[in-house]
Every structure is written in structure tokens, then in C-alpha cells.
Specification:
Radius of gyration: 24 Å
Number of strands: 0
Shape: elongated
Helix content: over 70%
Length: 87
């Protein structure tokens, strides 16, 4: 028997042996953990976006071309133009 299958069987047995209240609490906690992980992933993504935008702004201030900015930030020309016009 493979370890993965053994773990599946053990988890199924463990879940079946729980009371309804325990199962509800378990699923509630699991949902909370998943929600928190999603919030952290979103915050990390937004932070990275903000950092890239700041780099693009500094490059614009230094007179760098769209091509140079695209090379270092992976932003599109439209995104760079939008940042240029925010000033």
C-alpha cells in the first residue's frame, strides 16, 4: 500500500470518527485558514504591483524609454503611458 493511499484512508477514518460539532469546527477552521492564505496572496501580489509601478516612475523620472522600462518591469506600453500621465 502506498503512503498516499494510507494517508487518505487514515484521514477518512479520522473524519468519520468525529462528532458533528467537531467536523463543523474543523471545516470552519479550515475555511478560515484558506481565507487568510488568500488575503496574504492578494496582499503580496498588490505589493509587488506597487513596487513595479514605483520602479517605472523612477525610470520615467530618469528619462528612460518605454523599451527600457518594459525590459525591467514587464509592463506594457499602455501601462507605462498610464503611469506617465498620472504625474
Amino acid at each position: 500500500m502506498k503512503d498516499e493511499r494510507l494517508i487518505e484512508v487514515f484521514n477518512a477514518w479520522e473524519e468519520l470518527s468525529q462528532t458533528p460539532d467537531t467536523i463543523i469546527a474543523y471545516h470552519s477552521r479550515l475555511k478560515s485558514i484558506i481565507d487568510e492564505e488568500a488575503k496574504l496572496d492578494y496582499a503580496e501580489h498588490k505589493g509587488i504591483e506597487k513596487g513595479i509601478k514605483q520602479i517605472a516612475k523612477k525610470m520615467i523620472d530618469k528619462g528612460k524609454s518605454n523599451e527600457e522600462i518594459m525590459e525591467f518591469t514587464d509592463l506594457s506600453v499602455a501601462e507605462i503611458d498610464r503611469i506617465r500621465h498620472e504625474k
